[in-house]
């Protein structure tokens, strides 16, 4: 039985829904996400819209709960119903990926609600065991970049490992200092972002230096072309993808079968598409690690739940939210996280 088939026929009763804004002021912008609260048959399901553009979030909140979601469904018939809806009735999103982000918010809330109505946890429904969850801390190192942020975190917890975002200020000396820590799990080259604050041009000199100086790290989202291939040719078994993957077809269409990929649930939009990706990876020996989208609410716990079910031992970029806070709390849980599922539903107790 495929993974999605284990939940597709769960009955789902939706009487209505509400929207809740969560905000985190940051130095250069305010992060806003929206929690969908789906209610029915005396239960509530939650999911988080991680759309990055504040204007898209504000427009949704101003319009309110206008989508026709109420009814008697199964998880699958509800998902097929969403296929027919415009999930941005206030106007199209600024960026196409937001279509999947909002879809994921609604579908994850529906899955949570259906499981609660059935008296099941997600782990029970899928017949899978939860394991302690390995996570890494994701960050950039400033500009010009220094090793100091990594050293500061390691002074708090020597067992931490990191997913780092290089930029053009990285030097061989910095890369060697990072290698000496033994704590770099992944370097994210962000070669597929266009028109965002985190774009990184595909520089073959930078690519070659990073690949050589950090030989034990996964190399995520390198743009492989005739210019960069000479720098990466000896490191193809360390390449992994994130941003280009929004469907199972995106994975099967890659030029080579990947050794490993970053699975961000919200990138895939629907539960059925996400679960088909998990099944494909298992069937084809593709390793995976989870990734986050700066969730502020229940969405963070949900991606931790999924990672603990499907790939708990890999460098999951799903650290507890406190690690992303500009002023991190004094006490933070270390890696691995002990499983913290709710008794029913698709919920993870906040760490």
Commentary on this structure:
- With 351 residues, the protein is of the alpha/beta class.
- The chain folds into two domains: 5-119, Enolase-like, domain 1 (2-Layer Sandwich), CATH 3.30.390; 126-324, TIM Barrel (Alpha-Beta Barrel), CATH 3.20.20.
- Helix content is 34%, strand content 18%.
- It has a seven-stranded parallel beta sheet.
- The model has no long low-confidence stretch (mean pLDDT 95).
Summarize, please.
With 351 residues, the chain is α/β, with parallel strands linked by helices. It has helices at 5-8, 54-63, 75-82, 97-118, 122-126, 148-156, 172-181, 204-213, 229-232, 248-252, 265-268, 271-284, 298-310; strands at 11-14, 16-25, 30-40, 43-49, 71-74, 137-140, 162-165, 184-188, 218-220, 239-241, 260-263, 287-290. The strands form 3 sheets. Strands 6-7-8-9-10-11-12 form a 7-stranded parallel beta sheet.
């Amino acid at each position: 039985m495929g993974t999605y088939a284990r939940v597709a026929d769960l009955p789902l009763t939706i009487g209505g829904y509400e929207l809740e804004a969560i905000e985190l002021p940051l130095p250069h912008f305010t992060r806003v996400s929206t929690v969908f609260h789906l209610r029915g048959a005396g239960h509530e399901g939650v999911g988080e819209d991680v759309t990055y553009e504040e204007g898209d979030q504000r427009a949704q909140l101003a319009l309110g709960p206008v989508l026709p979601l109420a009814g008697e469904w199964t998880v699958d018939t509800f998902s097929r119903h969403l296929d027919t809806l415009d999930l941005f009735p206030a106007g199209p999103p600024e960026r196409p990926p937001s279509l999947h982000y909002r879809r994921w918010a609604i579908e994850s809330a529906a899955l949570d609600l259906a499981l609660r109505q059935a008296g099941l946890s997600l782990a029970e429904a899928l017949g899978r065991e939860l394991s302690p969850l390995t996570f890494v801390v994701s960050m950039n190192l400033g500009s010009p970049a220094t090793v100091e942020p990594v050293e500061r975190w390691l002074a708090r917890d020597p067992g931490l490992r990191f997913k780092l975002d290089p930029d053009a200020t990285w030097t061989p000396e910095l890369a060697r200092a990072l290698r000496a820590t033994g704590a770099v799990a992944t370097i994210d080259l962000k070669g597929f972002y266009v028109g965002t604050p985190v774009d990184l041009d595909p520089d073959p000199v930078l690519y070659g230096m990073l690949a050589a100086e950090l030989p034990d790290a996964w190399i995520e989202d390198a743009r492989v072309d005739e210019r960069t291939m000479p720098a990466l040719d000896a490191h193809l078994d360390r390449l992994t993808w994130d941003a280009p993957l929004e469907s199972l077809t995106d994975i099967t269409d890659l030029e080579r079968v990947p050794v490993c990929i970053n699975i961000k649930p919200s990138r895939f939009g629907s539960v059925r598409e996400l679960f088909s990706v998990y099944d494909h990876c298992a069937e084809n020996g593709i390793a995976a690690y989870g990734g986050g989208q700066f969730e502020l609410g229940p969405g963070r716990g949900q991606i931790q739940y999924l990672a603990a079910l499907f790939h708990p031992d890999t460098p999951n970029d799903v650290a507890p939210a406190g690690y992303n806070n500009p002023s991190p709390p004094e006490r933070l849980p270390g890696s691995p996280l002990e499983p913290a599922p709710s008794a029913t539903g698709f919920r993870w107790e906040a760490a």
